[in-house]
Design brief:
Number of strands: 10
Organism: Sneathiella sedimenti
CATH class of the largest domain: Alpha Beta
EC number: 2.1.2.11
Number of helices: 10
Pfam families: Pantoate_transf (PF02548)
Structural class: alpha/beta
CATH superfamily of the largest domain: Phosphoenolpyruvate-binding domains
Helix content: 25-40%
CATH topology of the largest domain: TIM Barrel
Family: Belongs to the PanB family.
Strand order of the largest sheet: 3-4-5-6-7-8-9-10
Order of helices and strands: EEHEHEHEHEHEHEHEEHHH
InterPro entries: Pantoate_hydroxy_MeTrfase (IPR003700), Pyrv/PenolPyrv_kinase-like_dom (IPR015813), Pyrv_kinase-like_dom_sf (IPR040442)
Strand content: 15-25%
Length: 293
């Protein structure tokens, strides 16, 4: 379940690290690298939903990958993580997954031992603090937190007033004090995030918050157009996977229909689809085993 281990000399620009499971691996970035790039270089990040998406992201040179943690079958999450063995990967924990600091630690360690480089946690400052004190790199969330959107007036931008901007600033400070190293900043006005980024030690990850963050983040399904929509305003659709999947389904139906029609008409199986034997073989078999009566 671990990301691919490496013991030989690492290729240029890759760092040798040891995971919490004790495996020696190569990564494109470490937490320190990402922190050192704050204010100097904007990195790219996607949320991958499948191993194919993760592998494609690594091949395309995406800097960072997020993977949703599946508490019912962590192997699915590990498979996505392992598909991009050299890319810094953060496991995103469901909001209601645990109810205590002890559970947060247990889940955090399990994910890290599976090859993760960090944990995303939008649960509580206590959970973040517990994991951070145990040495787990933890990312928080500020601005629009969709599953807490009832507190901020629904799915809307957060930070458009001085009071809201102050609240986000205070959230950053609380995350810093709790030991977080990074924060996802969702649908915050871009000029507010730009100023907040200058005023925090946290690595800021912009999701729909403009170019003022240290990292630009989008979901793979938004980039790929992989769904019926509607897609969020901040998404940029580069492909139309939804149409491709619909077209593929039409082709599946057509192929199955043609197969069934061939069976009914006797066109399948044709001579090229079957195995023949010499007449002498079948005649001898029939002689040995005549039909009853």
């Amino acid at each position: 379940m671990e990301k691919q281990s490496e013991t030989s000399s690492p290729p240029q620009d890759l760092k040798r690290v040891v995971t919490m499971a004790g495996d020696v691996c190569l990564r494109n970035y470490t937490v320190r690298d990402i922190r050192d790039l704050k204010g100097k270089k904007q990195l790219t990040q996607i949320l991958a939903f499948t191993p194919d998406e993760a592998a494609a992201a690594e091949a395309a040179g995406i800097d960072l990958i997020n993977v949703r943690w599946n508490p019912l079958d962590p192997r699915e999450s590990f498979a996505i993580c392992n598909a991009a063995p050299r890319t810094f990967t953060t496991f995103c924990m469901p909001l209601t997954l645990c109810t205590s600091e002890q559970e947060a630690l247990r889940i955090g360690f399990e994910a890290m031992e599976g090859g993760g480089d960090g944990i995303y946690c939008a649960w509580s400052l206590k959970f973040i603090e517990a994991m951070a004190k145990a040495g787990i790199p933890v990312q928080g969330h500020a601005g629009l937190v969709p599953r807490r959107s009832t507190w901020t007036g629904g799915l809307r931008a957060v930070g458009k007033t001085v009071a809201e901007a102050e609240s986000i600033f205070n959230d950053f400070k609380n995350l810093e004090q709790a030991g977080a190293w990074s924060v996802e900043c969702e649908v915050i006005p871009h000029r507010i995030l730009s100023e907040l980024t200058k005023r925090t030690s946290l690595v800021t990850v912009s999701l729909g918050s403009g170019d003022g963050g240290d990292v630009q983040f989008l979901f793979a399904q938004d980039i790929l157009g992989d769904g019926p929509g509607p897609f969020p305003r901040h998404a940029k659709i580069y492909r139309d996977f939804h149409k491709m999947r619909q077209d593929m389904q039409k082709e599946r139906i057509a192929a199955f229909s043609e197969f069934a029609a061939d069976i009914r008409s006797g066109e399948y199986p044709a001579p090229e689809n079957i195995v023949e034997i010499d007449d002498a073989v079948i005649e001898e078999f029939l002689a040995r085993h005549p039909l009853p009566g």
